[in-house]
Write a structure and sequence with these properties.
Length: about 575
């Protein structure tokens, strides 16, 4: 008997069957949330996949057509985009991914697959963000599910566009920053700064994450100095009182000099870009110039105030001199340049295009868009989720969970997009994951609170809330998700031109110009002035086997005398309209 017992112990068999089952259950209990996460991702992938096939081989909208044009340039000209209205990182990733699986002819399909995978990656990043904040598996899974089945995120993740990758990098950067401010470990600081650089190289609006970093450094200066003492000592030092005062003084002089000697000619050249946006100078430019000049003046006044305050109250401003802030900005810049290296090669084009984007945001419409994004959310997303977001914030404060970095980002982001004078629903994409992470915690808190009154009631409440949200968001899913066999007017235009097989195609406005190039046709853009009455020689010199494609807006701009020179072959009023002409 002793021999049997010793043998059992040696072979680790000294446990009974119930203990064995309990151990296995604990193992499953430790991984169930990851199995559930995989299930959410799998179901979300299946739900989103029909959008990958929508309208092929034609782009889903003008934004995707712009992305396709950049990929086409990479394929046929080179990796220098010579176009910096958007940065390059997303397009490089998409191009190399598509090049691995196929060629430019299949770029739309594989590019959409990549963006679908980015959508799954966004849900995973929100899962880990929520788990870090709240240490709740249930809240993390709910946040991931809200992200995976968000109508706006589904729509933005269904075609080749930068917003989903921007959201992933923003969430990862914010998570790394929070870990740095909590632990003072510089590996998180370094990785966070690099990820911010990659995010800015995906879309310029990620500059908001960089500003969030600087503000968080200023807020957490004292507590972080105590935690990080002895670690990377140089980064914990800063400029002296007199050095900082001198820096603010010099900055004030530079800003006031710019205001006095305002470079109108330089800005004029910036606005006359080589790109498609704002390529002409008009009366609105004076408004734009005055707006820029006023902002520089305000910055100069602010810098002068900082000069006086830093001299009078050195302890108050010592945090502004911290070396780590400036090193962080430097690393962010390195990350940006690594992902968009041709900014250095074609720096003039970069300045021109970036200036054009500033003008386009400042003068696109007459009013700011503060209420537009609230309407977009109401139209596209769940009101129930928004209610739980408010509950989640309240419970986070009650439990002393630090949301400082996330709330700073959300407030800054809304200020930037709300004060802009153009708006699109997809501009909400980088903010939604943060909202969903906090909402998931709010839902979990309500379930846990009600569970106190009756055991097991938590599961019922969570199931009920999920069903209610599911019905609400299902009604707001993109219509193209259920109409993947329906094509838009651009697809019909593409099909007509392909069957006609012209020797050359000229276009103005939204048209399948990139898709026709990929199909092997020679395509050229019509000069803007060619549509005017006194400049239509270009159009009348066309040959009979050449076609003209105009969208609805451009078609209305043609003078009747010019239109009489052409024969309308095909047209549709669907969407933005398409009109195809040839010479009589």
């Amino acid at each position: 008997m002793k021999l049997i017992n010793s043998t059992r112990r040696y072979l680790h068999l000294d446990i009974n069957f119930s203990d064995y089952i309990f151990q296995k259950f604990n193992v499953l209990k430790g991984v169930w949330e990851y199995l559930a996460l995989i299930s959410i991702l799998g179901l979300g992938f299946v739900v989103r996949y029909p959008l990958v096939l929508y309208n092929l081989p034609v782009s889903a909208n003008v934004d995707e057509r712009l992305s396709l044009a950049i990929l086409y340039r990479f394929e046929n000209v080179g990796l220098n985009p010579e176009w910096f209205h958007y940065p390059s990182f997303f397009y490089y990733l998409t191009f190399f991914w598509c090049d691995f699986w196929g060629d430019i002819n299949s770029a739309l399909f594989y590019g959409r697959i990549l963006n679908l995978l980015f959508g799954c990656g966004l849900a995973v990043s929100v899962f880990f963000l929520s788990q870090y904040l709240y240490k709740s598996k249930t809240a993390s899974l709910i946040a991931a599910a809200l992200t995976m089945f968000s109508p706006l995120l589904i729509e933005s993740g269904s075609y080749i566009i930068t917003d989903i990758l921007l959201a992933i990098l923003s969430v990862i950067a914010l998570l790394l920053l929070m870990r740095f401010f909590e632990t003072a470990q510089y590996k998180f600081w370094l990785m966070g700064a690099l990820v911010i650089g990659l995010a800015i190289s995906t879309k310029y609006t990620a500059l908001i994450v960089a500003i969030t970093y600087v503000i968080s450094e200023l807020i957490n200066y004292k507590s972080l100095s105590e935690k990080s003492r002895g670690n990377w000592l140089l980064l914990n030092k800063g400029f002296t009182h007199f050095q900082l005062t001198g820096i603010f003084s010099i900055l004030s002089l530079i800003l006031f000099a710019i205001v006095i000697l305002f470079p109108h000619d330089l800005l004029m050249s910036i606005l006359q870009t080589s790109g498609d946006l704002n390529s002409t100078v008009d009366a609105k430019d004076i408004i734009f110039f005055n707006s820029l000049r006023k902002k520089v003046l305000y910055l100069g006044i602010l810098s002068l105030i900082c000069t006086v305050l830093s001299y009078r109250f050195p302890r108050l401003f010592e945090r502004f001199g911290l070396f780590r802030i400036y090193m962080g900005i430097g690393i962010i810049t390195v990350g940006f340049l690594l992902a968009s290296p041709y900014v250095l090669v074609s720096w003039k084009t970069f300045i021109y295009d970036f200036g054009s984007e500033l003008k386009h945001n400042a003068l696109h419409t007459e009013d700011s868009q503060w209420l537009a994004y609230i309407r977009y959310y109401f139209d596209k997303e769940s009101m129930v989720v928004l209610a739980f977001f408010i509950i989640g914030i309240f419970m986070s404060f009650k439990r002393k969970i630090n949301l400082g970095v996330l709330l700073t980002y959300l407030i800054l982001y809304y200020i930037v997009i709300g004060s802009s004078t153009r708006s699109f629903p997809r501009y909400l994409v980088p903010a939604l994951p943060i909202l969903f992470a906090i909402s998931g915690f709010g839902i979990d808190c309500v379930g846990s609170y009600l569970n106190k009154y009756r055991k097991g009631f938590r599961s019922i409440v969570l199931l009920f809330v999920i069903v209610v949200i599911g019905f609400e968001v299902y009604a707001k899913f993109p219509s193209s998700l259920f109409q993947n066999y329906n094509k838009d007017e651009i697809f019909d235009s593409y099909q007509f031109v392909k069957k006609y097989n012209p020797s050359q195609v000229y276009f103005s406005g939204d048209s399948p110009n990139v898709e026709l190039r990929i199909a092997g046709l020679e395509v050229e853009k019509i000069p803007e002035k060619a549509l005017l009455l006194d400049n239509y020689d270009f159009l009348t010199n066309l040959k009979p086997n050449q076609l003209i494609i105009l969208d609805g807006a451009k078609n209305t701009q043609i003078y009747p005398e010019v239109r009489q020179q052409f024969k309308l072959l095909w047209s549709t009023n669907r969407g933005g309209g398409q009109y195809i002409y040839k010479i009589h």
